[in-house]
Each structure stands twice: as structure tokens, then as C-alpha cells.
Protein: Ca2+-transporting ATPase
Amino acid sequence: MLKFHQMKLEEVEQTLHTNITNGLTRKAVHKKREKFGWNELSEGERPSAILLFFNQFKDFMVLVLLAATLISGLLGEYLDAVAIMVIVLINGFLGFLQENKAEKSLQALKNLSAPQVTVLRDGEWQKINSKEVVPGDIIKFASGDRIGADMRIIAANNLEIEESALTGESIPAPKFTEPIAETNPPLGDLANMAFKGTLVTRGNGVGVVTAIGMSTVMGNIAGMIQTAESVMTPLQRRLDQLGKILISVALVLTVLVVITGIIHGHDVYTMFLAGVSLAVAAIPEGLPAIVTIALSLGVQRMIRKNAIVRKLPAVETLGCASIICSDKTGTMTQNKMTVTKIWNGGKDWDVTGTGYHLEGEFFYQDHKVDVLKEKTLQQLLIFGALCNNASVSVTGNEVELDGDPTEGALLIAALKAGYEKQTLLNEFTVEKEYPFDSERKMMSVLVKDRSGRRLIISKGAPDVLITKCQRALWGETVKPINDFIRKEVDGAVEELAVQALRTIAVGCKELHSPDIPQTAQEAESGLTFIGLFGMIDPPRPEVKAAVEECRQAGIKTIMITGDHVVTARAIAKQLGILETGKESRNVMDGQMLDDMSVQELEGTVEDVGVFARVSPEHKLKIVKALQNRGHVVAMTGDGVNDAPAIKAADIGIAMGITGTDVSKEASSLILLDDNFATIKAAIKEGRNIYENIRKFIRYLLASNVGEILVMLFAMLLYLPLPLVPIQILWVNLVTDGLPAMALGLDQPEENVMHRKPRHPKEGVFARKLGWKIVSRGFLIGIVSLIAFIIVYRRDPSDLSYAQTIAFTTLVLSQLIHVFDCRSEISVFSRNPFENKYLVWAVISSALLTVAVIYIPVLQPIFHTVPILPLDWLLVLGLSCFPTFLLAGSLFSRKNK
Ligand code: ATP
Structure:
């Protein structure tokens, strides 16, 4: 039997039981799905839930504790043994819940950023998840797409595909549709096939799916390509190192507690169990899990704000961003283009109407014109509709657009004059297309009319297109381009651009030879300039405020656009990107960028607010120059050529709607709504997540310092044990559990966007965090000890009572201190009831502790005794002390 690459298209159709013009039917898809399954590569095993649960107990100190408990159980201390086991299990279960949640949300993220493909089914093109593709599906793809399955190519337009993932060859291979006779040519020679996982770098095409999932060439070598990536964020890495140091410190102090205790006459077994419990409580083993939770909760909040984080480290980097380089079209503007001006040979027309509506008329010097009488206007509108890849469907007066809005605007302008693309295509056949690319800034088609006349029609950026023109249509005659005409055209472009209009020029030439020009360069030369379209693209209303908010946060916004310098400047001014009075200094165009080295650019780059007329290559230069100046750069992009700059930026941002697969894969953040304001929201969230992580690091460590110190000082002072092991474990459970997690859900402080960006190298304990941890921790330890000493001195015979008082003071002082951790400034600067989760976490932890003291069955387990009402005053008073003593003026200077 012939192989797919050897077959004619009809044979491919028959073999795969499909129909090239209508695609598969829903029923056929269903049947094929049952037979062939999903289009996915089998993934490496994920850790099972049970494994994840048992992983919680593999920590060394937890194992020692379990062993010690077992021994105490064997020695007859059943109650203690069971209670400790239960607490360790609950702790493990909490850890398991946290990790499981983190794992699940990471998986959900992966699904969200799954690639999509455009497929023809039941006669209609539709976008589906690449996973749903079956053999026989007809798929459309264009430059920037990643091929979703193995395909036989049935239409190719300047198509080139980069197959280095499979062949190692990084130069893109041109693709065609003709059958290949050879049975087994090397993969690189299969010019009529496209393979899953490869990248379309130029042109566009259509293919029939021949294989999916593990049956594809990629599937065969999937084992080699699968890399289970689990990236740690810089903070996680730093905390990992810090964790090791903290463990050592905690262990040394614990050993000190145990040794002093033994020297001072406590029995070895009790001291050993107390020591191990203390080690378990004081070692912040929950820190990495809580950091992951805070990151993933933040990531979920970002999704709700339309930002998808693809790489977790980006969450942290977002908080350090000092520059946002953003595309203009679609990100800062609405990308809802409407043609409002048309210019030809010294004459300009106004077009009325807004957005995607058909109402609209043509005016010349305030007089309505009949388009049928204006030959050049007609020609411009028809050419604009023919050299066009978009399509529109009309219901009543509403128009739905499929394709590039710039092209859609041209179709709608033509429709307003009564020219419909589909009807025009009955008169003109398109023989070849030279697709748009943002480097050439042009697109052309070769069309043939009914009389056999063949025309190249080009449209593109006016300053580029005019250089390809030798003649111009002036009124109704064609004239050679001279200085006068050139000046007139430049003046007209400038006038449109000053009004913030996007400009598109149209040109054409007649072909007299029957040959088809193979390259765009050949086709786009010796043209006749026909005229100009000016279209509005209104700024997104929320962008101006977002730019201002970024400015207050010490983040500079730079607009980067392929559009005309004057248009870009006008829009930048509307958005407040250029400070008044500095405009001319703050705009740079692609030409100037070309003439500069990265080093030269470094000198001026910080003064530039707008880069206009740039091509994607320039973006890399801009990123590098800014980074060399010490900036943390966020850079947006959508096209295939934007990928290097997106990759090089500290935060690469891709567009969810208009972005290509390549740009999405290179990015660390995707904007689901393509909106600049979403970048600002993500940065705010990034700052908040980092602050929340700092909050619970502060809380956990201060608590641990308190726990260790109360024990250590008591031993040093020849006192009895202020806490029994099970109490230490309980303190750990109620304080490190819910309240710490609730801090991860804290709302940002009001001033989070009034501070300068964080320095990326800032240490974990920067901005006085270390001091706060030690000072508060010290006070927590001291007040618990004081409570213990007062009550113990009063009645040395009732040790359990004194221990209950110390235990309660330790728990409560930590539960009160948690509110202090919410602010970098002072506990008084925030409303304590704002974070409902925290309030409930604190209330439930406090009630559980009260239960442990008052419920008779729990008393023997926790070695507690009911506290007398008057002693509550002592406990509460002392518990408030650590938080409120230092909350006053001395340390409350604003941390800006
Ligand atoms: P951004 O602001 O996101 O960089 P842009 O649309 O301004 O996007 P490009 O898409 O690179 O940048 O377009 C550059 C220029 O090319 C535009 O100013 C316009 O004159 C021209 N152009 C844009 N789209 C088309 C198209 N489909 N066909 C022909 N010319 C186009």
C-alpha cells in the first residue's frame, strides 16, 4: 500500500475516510475517537495520593519523634504515645492536603495553556483543543503555530516548517503539496508532510491528519523528549538553603535544652521526648509547602484576573519588574479598527460609522458622495477587500469578524460601499498570496480577473509601500512619483497619523508575463501607489489608569509598536506614557535603533517612552539594553518572531487571544484578554504574593524562636519544664496550621503599589524582617516564661497548672502576633478583621486550645488544668505584650 506522502489527495481522502471540503462529521469524529483515542503523548507518572501522604512523614525529625513515641508507648505511656501519633498524623494530613492542592493547581494550569488548533468539521472552521484531534481531521495552520498532529499537507502558501525537534535541522524546510514517489525518504525530505511538535515559521497551509498521539513520529520518540520539569522559584531555592541552616540552629538549641535539662536534674527520658517534640515544632518543615501554596493560590487569583502564569518563578519576578515593554495594538488599544479616512491623489474622504457595524457613509468636504461615481475610491475599496485574509459574517447590521482587525476594517469599509469580498471573488481569482509579516510590514496577492488580466495588489505600512512604488494614481491618471507626489503622500500619512489613526497604503501592478512571481520581493516592486486608509483603534479605557498606577509603583511603561511614529506618539500621549514637554525625546523609531549598538542604546534607552516602526528583532535589543541598565523587564509579544525577546525578558508575556503558539511557549505569563491592565494586575498580585510569603516566614519563625526560648530559658534558670511534649506539639499544630495558611490569603497592603519594585537580589530577611522575627520571638518566649514563673512561684506544688498557663500564653501570644505580621508598618495600620480567613483561623485555634484546657477527657491527654478566671487576665495581658510593645513608635517607621 502507498504511504501518505506518495498518495494523491483523493487517495488520502479515501484512505482516511474524510472529506477535504467539509471535514469530518461529528459522528465520524466520535467513532474515530473510540478507535484511536486522544491526541496526546502519554505522560510520566504523577505521584499517587498515597505516596504524597506518606511523603509527609519521611522527614528525619518526624521519624525520630515517631520512634520515640513508639518507645514511650512500649514503656507504658499509652496516652502520650497515642496523642502524639494523632497530632503527627493530623500534621501530616494537613501537609498532604497542601501539597495535593499545589499539585492539582499546577496541573490545572497546564490544561489551561494547552494548545489549540483550527479544524474543519461539519463544513465549519472551529477552534478546538489539540487533544481532541482525530485522524482525518482537516487542520488550518499559519506562521507561529505548533503543528498538533502528523499531517499530509493539502494546501501550502509560502509554507515553511522548522523541524529541529525531530530532525535536528534548525533551518526551516519549505513545504509543498505534490506527492513524493520515493517510499522511504528521510524525514527531512518529506516536503508534503507536517509533523506533530514542529513549528510553522512562515506562510500558512492546510493538512489532513494522518496520525495522532503516540502514533506520531514525535510519539515514537516521546520518551526522549519528555522532561519532567519541576522548577523551583528563586525564593523556594533560597528558603531551601535557609531551611537547612534553620534546622541546624533548631537542633543545636534543642540539644542545648536537653543537655541543660539533664544537667539540672530532669530525667533523661522526659528531656529526650521534650527535645524531639521541640525539634519537630521548631523546625519549619511546613515552610516549602506553604510557599508553594501561597504561590499557587496567588496563581489562581491571577487566573481570575486573566493572567496565566506558565512558569512559577515568574510570580516572584513580577514583583521586581521595573519596566513593562508593551505592544500597542490590541494590548493598549482595543484592536477594533474602523476606517474613518481614505486618501487618494490629494483628495480625502471621510467614512462615518463605528466598530463592527454596517451603517456608514462616505463624505467629501462634508458632502455625501456616491461611491459608484468615484472610480479611484471604488478601486481602493475593492483592492483593500481583495488583498485580505479576514472574513466577515453579517447578521442585520451587525458584523462578526474572523481574522485580523486591520483587514476586517477594510472589509467593513468596502461593505459600506456595497462591495462584498465573496462576490468580488466571483470576478477575481486569487492565484497566489504573499502573506503579511511584521518585518516586511506588507501583504500582497496575485489575482486574475474575468478578462484574464493579472494584477499584483499590495497593502502595507505606507512608508514601506511607497518605496516599492514607481508611479502613483493621481486623480484618475497615473503619474511617475516625483518629489511633489512623495511630499504629498508623506504629508497625508502624517496628517492621518497625528489623529492617532493607523495607516495602511494600497498599491498594485499589472503582470504581463504568465509567470507567477515566487517571492514577495519579486511581486512587490514597481508598484503604482493607489491610496491610503486611516483607521481608528481606540485605546482601551482602563490602560491610562494602569499606566499611572505603574508609574506610582516605580514601574515605567514603554510602548513598542510596528505602527507609524506619529500614530504611536499620539496614542502614547492619550495614555499618559509620554510626559508632556518631553515627547520628542521620548520617541525612537526602528531606523534609529538599527543604527545603534546595544551599548549605545543603553545610554538613551531609559529616556524612551515609545519605540515605533520596530520589527520584532528590535525588541531583543531593547530588552538587552534595559537589562544591562539593571532593569527587570517585562516584555509582551504575539508573533513568531517575538519569541526570542519574550524568552530573553525577565518576564516574557504572550497574548492569549492573538498570540501564536511559539510566543506562548516562550512566555512565562499569558494574558487571556490581551490587556495591558492585566499586566499591572499581575504585577500587583506578584508583589502581594511575595509579601504574603514574607508574612508567614515572619510568623512561623518568630513563633519557633518563642517556643525554643521559653524552653531554653527555663532550663537555664533551673526551672521545671514549662511545657510537656504534647503541649509543644499542640502549639505547633494550631499556630503553624490554619493561621499561617490564612496569611497566604491576605489582601495586599494599601501601599503595595506605592513602593519601588523589590530588588531581585533582596534577601529573605531584608527590610528588617530578621530583626522583627528575633525581637517578637524573644518577647513571645519571655512572656510565656514570665507567666509560668509567676504561677509556679505562687504554688510550686501545682506544676500542671503553671504549665497550662505557659502553654496558653504561648498559643495566644502567637495568635495575636499573627495580626502584626500582616503589615510591614505596624499592627495598627490595618483593619484586623479584613482577612476573614485569618480571623476564623485564629478563633478556631483559640477555641480548640480552650477545649483542650476545659474538656475533662482531653485534660489528661494534654496534661492541662482549667484556668481560673482571674488568671485569664494575666494570660491575656502578657499575650498582648509582644505584639503591642513594639508596635509603637520605635519600630513603626514606614518601610517604603
Ligand atoms: P503592535 O503595536 O502590536 O506592534 P502593529 O500592528 O502596530 O502591532 P505590526 O502588526 O507589525 O505592528 O504592523 C506594522 C505595520 O504593518 C502597521 O502599522 C500597518 O501599517 C501594517 N500592517 C499591519 N497589518 C497589516 C496587514 N494585515 N496587511 C498589510 N499591512 C499591515
